[in-house]
Amino acid sequence: MNSEMGPETALAVGRRAAEDLAGALELTGCKLPSLNGGFPVLGMAHVDLGGASAETVFALARWIRERA
Hints:
- The protein contains two helices and two strands.
- By secondary structure, the chain is α+β, with helices and mostly antiparallel strands.
- The protein has one domain.
- The protein has a two-stranded antiparallel sheet.
- It is elongated, with a radius of gyration of 14 Å.
- It starts with 6 loop residues before the first helix and ends with a helix.
């Protein structure tokens, strides 16, 4: 990622990354309710993860382990 991108561009990249991850997680049957593109941190795109129930996190961890 280009460290010289402007805050609007970094914000857009973070949002796109969050949408991409949300789509991938949907394939696992998991959803992170608070997953979204956050404001840039140190000029770099940022994604806020979290807001998931323990049940969802266990399911996601199990899905990852089964495929690793």
